[in-house]
Structure formats: structure tokens, C-alpha cells
Amino acid sequence: MRFDAVFFDSGGTLFGPGSSLGSDPSPEEVDARRPERVAAMLNGLGKEVDLEEIRARLPECERLSSEQYGVAHTYMRTVELLYRSFGWEEKLEEILCVTEAYVGPRYRSWLFPGTVQTIRKLHEMGLILGVIANTAVPGWIFDRIWKGVGLLDFFSVRVYSGDEGIAKPDPRIFRLAAARAGVVGKRILYVGDVPDVDIRGAKSVGWSAALRRSRRDRSCELADFEFDDIRELLDYVM
Asked: Are 158 and 139 in contact (CB under 8 A)?
């Protein structure tokens, strides 16, 4: 095999439009229902909030969190600011529950076709697999998401920008992932869909890089390999 380890981006690389959502809501629908989920959770915790008030405050709290924390911004920090805006005591037990409600589910039907089968096959081939994602979703929630779609057991290392305060294409986040996986100096492939973030970042630390181009009608001259269907990775890796 060409590589000892393969790391993946998340959104746009593993998660995408899929072939069919079936009866599942779309990503846009799940995001649009954030205020309803948050208000329902808060009311369940005895806060007695008005839905329209939550709908008005959430975007401002997310904006302030992003401004204050930069790449260390997470949705948990957004919820903390929401609590402060109401003058509530910031009880960690409650904030964790509300943050999960804020994030909501990600469905298996959102994965690109062939994703689970391909990741499983790469795992069976003995490769070390992991994730490096720029995301405001806290890692403990993203791990729940991977478990829900059947991929958590395959990813031995998961590095999330909000948790680390480092984001792609910063070389440090790639080096951190390699160190945690125990593959420093070995043959590593990174798979992503954004040339300036994923491909340039991976190449800056000497990794190979594969570009998923399905959602973007463009190529990247730095990419070692480009594909439209994740199943194409199997032949390339071997």
C-alpha cells in the first residue's frame, strides 16, 4: 500500500448531499430548526423561554462567540453566551444538554454514497484512519455524530479545530493529528474538498493529498489524486 495512514475532512468530503435523503430532513432543515430545539430544551429545563426570543438571540450569540474566540469558537461557547444574555447561572449540566440540542443530528443519508463501505475497507486493510475538521461542533458531540452514522470505530484519531484552537490550513493541526496517531514521518494521505484549506495545508507538512471534486467543478494542481466517488480511493491507496 502507498500509505500508512489516511485522514479525512468532514463536511463536503464525507458528508454531502448523498444520493437520496429519503424521509430524513436536509442539513438546511436541521439548521433552520435550531431555535425550536433550543427553546424546547430550555423549557424542559424550566427556563420558560419564548421561541421568538430564542430565534432573535441565537444568531447574535454565535456572532459574538466567533468574534471573541476566533478558531476556538464552538457552539458550546454560543450557548454559554446565550445563558449570559438572559442572566442565568451557567450550569454545565444544562449547557451540555442545550449545546447538543443546538447542534442537532447528522443523518447517515447525508454521507456521500459508498462512504461507510470505503472507510470500513480501508480500516480492514490495516490503515490508521482519522479526521481533521474545521468545525464549531464540540468534539464530544462530533464523536456522537460519527457513532450515529457508523464511522466512529474506524477513526482512531479525531482532531477538531474548535477544541484545539487551531484550524486548517495551519500546519500545526496536521502535525498534531500525526503525533496523536503515532505516524510522524510515515506515509500519510489527507482527503479533503477545499484546495486552499485541505490540499495546501496537507502538502505544507509533506503529506500526500487527494481532492474530492464532486461538489466543486474545479481541480487543484497541488493534489496528488482527484476523485468524484470515494470508492475510487481504494485503488489509489493500494
From this structure: yes
The DSSP 8-state label assigned to residue 192 in this structure reads E
180-190 per-position pLDDT tens digit: 999 999 999 99
Q: Average pLDDT for residues 47-64, to the nearest whole number? A: 97
Return the pLDDT at 219.
Answer: 76
Beta strand 128-133 with 5-8: parallel, antiparallel or unpaired? parallel
Largest CA distance in the chain: 58
Interval 95-154: pLDDT, tens: 999 999 999 999 999 999 999 999 999 999 999 999 999 999 999 999 999 999 999 999
Angle at 171 between CA 167 and CA 177, to 5 degrees: 75
Q: Helix (H, G, I), strand (E, B), or coil: what is residue 165?
A: coil
Q: CA 116, 122, 127, 128: dihedral to nearest 10 degrees?
A: -10
Computed on alpha carbons and rounded to an integer, the radius of gyration of the chain in Å comes to 19
Do residues 224 and 42 make contact, with C-beta atoms less than 8 angstroms apart? no
Distance CA 53, CA 175 (A): 43
- Angle in degrees, 0-180, between the axes of helices 51-69 and 34-44, rounded to the nearest 10: 110
HSE value, Cβ hemisphere, 13 Å, CA-based, for 26: 6
**Which three three-digit cell numbers place residue 70?**
476566533
